[in-house]
Fold this sequence. Notes:
Distance between the termini: 121 Å
Helix content: 40-55%
Radius of gyration: 50 Å
Structural class: alpha+beta
Number of strands: 19
Low-confidence stretches: 514-523
Mean pLDDT: 80
Number of helices: 15
Strand order of the largest sheet: 2-1-5-4-3
Strand content: 15-25%
Amino acid sequence: MTESFEINDLTLWLGVLEKIVDSSTNMVVITDAERRIKWVNARYTQVTGWTLHECVNKRPREVLHGPETSPETLATIGTLLRAGEPVKGVELVNYRKSGEIYRVSLDIEAIRDSGGRICAYLSMQSDITDQHQRHLDSIELKRRLDVAQRLARLGRIETDPETGQPYWSSEVFRILGMVPDDRPRGFDDLLAHAYKADVLALQLDRPWQCDTGQEVDIEFRVEGARGMRWIRCQGIPRAEGGRYLPPQSWLVQDISLFKSRLEEKRLLNERLNELVQERTQKLEESNQALEDFSYALSHDLRTPLRHVAGFSELLAEAVRRGEVGECLRYCEKISQSAHKMQELIEGMLAFAKAGRQGLKLVPIPLSSVIPEMIAAVEGTAGGKPVHWEVDPELPVVQGDPVLLREVWLNLLDNAVKYSSGRERITVRVGWLPRDEGWEFFVKDNGAGFDPRHAHKLFGMFQRLHRDDQFKGTGVGLALVRRIVESHGGRIWALSTPGEGAAFHFLLPFCAGLDDPSSSITPS
Length: 523
């Protein structure tokens, strides 16, 4: 070339080079110093659809650039060319003649004359459309894999085939609540976060091999920034030197949700078993109540009916004889028997109602209930004074106010009734906090009972004293037991004949209401 280098000479030169570059897999474009196209090879025409005749004397932007072509990238190319710098490996979006987008990796070198002036540009373009698409597909595949693994709480521990260094996937970091980094991390690094007890139980604290070559599938707990997590690790041992070594690749899955569901199922099964037991117990109680009623119908109610029938016959005989005094005495006996039967029927109805009535649980301050119940029973002492001893600071319990009043009324009334033979009646009401609930008691200085027969006290129509000693139906304590047990409690009695009796019952604590640690111990 000489300083008088002309375009026509360039054209002749291109003709010589055409044979060389036409077989190239790259697109080759020659432009003049004004960036007007002077020559393109066959590959250019094949990719873009533009022939040399169609694009000669046009600038590349007139045939190749479109809406998706980056103005910033074009500005960078222009800046480099104006500065006389080469363009190396710039990725650019171009358009074919059909309007279809393709991508290229672009190199541009300036051609200078002997005086160093730029007289032309040589542009080499590699079609990277498929390569770019494969890259996008790889990114999308990795993104979907990461999403799938995150949804499955599934991470990986892999070994880089080039460096031989192990690394964690992002999901393993997420399971432990750690920020991902590039530090080499393997299975032993994961074990550093494991619960020691689990590591010892699985014997992971010592070098281990997999002699059978079977898949390793283990579960253990790890502690991280997100707290305790259950993980499942699966790997296939690798064969080396005729033996199997621990896996180099592991699948690490967060199974905390699965474990929590198992625990919920276990607790639910326990609760169902408890409900079955409770219902079985209620069924047994109902059966027992039916037996009590059957006994009452066959025995206790039959007795006053026999009395009514017997005295009615005697009354008829006395009427025929005209014995007025005897008639009045037999009428009194009939009236007493009818009254007794009425009391038994009312007691049975009260007992049955307590079994059907649903509990309406509300906070009940016993410090106001007990004085009210004491006032209700004081009139039953036959005019004798009653000395009441009530422990201070009675707690607030949760229960059905109507039914629990019935409990206190029966116990206090019994204490006064069975102490009526004393010159001075003394009744003490106390309470104690126990591990399982509040224990209450009512003690009296009355007749007491034989402790060998204490188990009979709370049965329907069961009495340990004769009617001529103390009036009663034997329903009250059975009713008290049913109410206490319906609240989840229990009741028992202690006594020595002639030295009074003590009735104790326990009501369980209620969450959010009872706090025994803050209670004042009664004196």
